[in-house]
Amino acid sequence: MSVIKGATIGMFDGVHLGHQYLISQLKEHCDEAVAVTFTNHPLWVIKGEREPRLLSTPAEKSRMLGALSVRPVLLPFDEQLRHMTAEEFIRLLAREHGIDLLVLGFNNSIGSDRRTSDDDSALSNATGVEIIRASELPGEVKVNSSAIREMVAAGDVKQAAALLGRNYAINGTVVHGKKLGRTIGFPTANIEADSTDKLIPANGVYAADATTTDGHAYRAVVNIGHRPTVDNPSAPVTIEAHLDGFTGSLYDQPLTLHFLDRLRGERKFSGLDELKAAISSDLNRTRTL
């Protein structure tokens, strides 16, 4: 019996619950499952600017898709791909990746000619690739990447997690900062995100789990913003995390922040004593989550 290689197509930004449901349906119809996706957002090419910011970098997306037991195929979305018709694109997938079957989202259109489910039969006949339409994720809440981006951008990481099926995370490297936290009893790790295209949550203070390179997780208080109490209010946005119970150095090491909830907005305090009291309160709240 021949092996059936199936694929689905999409940006899969965030690999949220809707994406996961689509992929589960793909796996029901084939022996080998492939997720065809893109290294850059198509709108970057169409609009000529690097917006929207990404819920998941290409590397993060590859890992998440791999964890779902599908093989990711990442293609650069360029002008050539932008102007490829649905039939041309399907033929490319069949020729270069051996795709026998496509499972597409219930409302997806593909190709520069924006072919829809009404065209599936004709496209199948033209390309020899069977096309199946997946059903929509059940439930009243519509799950899509745009809605999740709005939540993260507004700081609502808890609701974003409900649609992602996991906590929103930022992967980065610990870099040298001004070392002000240690002078008030709350040393922080300054994190530089792995990609400038990554969507950073709204300025504020967050509860998070911080995972170090050895896999150990620490509950953390994370500040995103300009640090107005100790720095110029117009200073660049920084990401700083105080890891509860951690001792040692994290400089130049990878660190992942898994956001649990937003505790409060960033504010300027009257002085260091008031700032210390606020951080202590934030830490106590974080420990209860």
UniProtKB/TrEMBL annotation:
SUPFAM superfamilies in the record: Nucleotidylyl transferase (SSF52374), Riboflavin kinase-like (SSF82114)
Keywords: ATP-binding, FAD, Flavoprotein, FMN, Kinase, Multifunctional enzyme, Nucleotide-binding, Nucleotidyltransferase, Transferase
Reaction catalysis annotation: riboflavin + ATP = FMN + ADP + H(+); FMN + ATP + H(+) = FAD + diphosphate
Pathway where this protein functions: Cofactor biosynthesis; FAD biosynthesis; FAD from FMN: step 1/1; Cofactor biosynthesis; FMN biosynthesis; FMN from riboflavin (ATP route): step 1/1
GO biological process: FAD biosynthetic process; FMN biosynthetic process; riboflavin biosynthetic process
GO molecular function, one term: FMN adenylyltransferase activity
InterPro entries: Cyt_trans-like (IPR004821), FAD_synthase (IPR015864), Riboflavin_kinase (IPR023468), Riboflavin_kinase_bac (IPR002606), Riboflavin_kinase_bac/euk (IPR015865), Riboflavin_kinase_dom_sf (IPR023465), Rossmann-like_a/b/a_fold (IPR014729)
Enzyme Commission identifier(s): 2.7.1.26, 2.7.7.2
Gene3D superfamilies, sorted: HUPs, Riboflavin kinase-like
Record flagged with keyword Kinase: yes
Broadest EC class assigned to this enzyme: transferase
Residues covered by the Riboflavin kinase domain: 163-289
Protein family per UniProt: Belongs to the ribF family.
Stored NCBIfam families: cyt_tran_rel (TIGR00125), ribF (TIGR00083)
Signal peptide: none
Role according to the record: Catalyzes the phosphorylation of riboflavin to FMN followed by the adenylation of FMN to FAD.
Organism: Bacteroides uniformis
UniProt-listed PANTHER family: RIBOFLAVIN KINASE, RIBOFLAVIN KINASE/FMN ADENYLYLTRANSFERASE
Protein's name in the database: Riboflavin biosynthesis protein
Pfam families: FAD_syn, Flavokinase
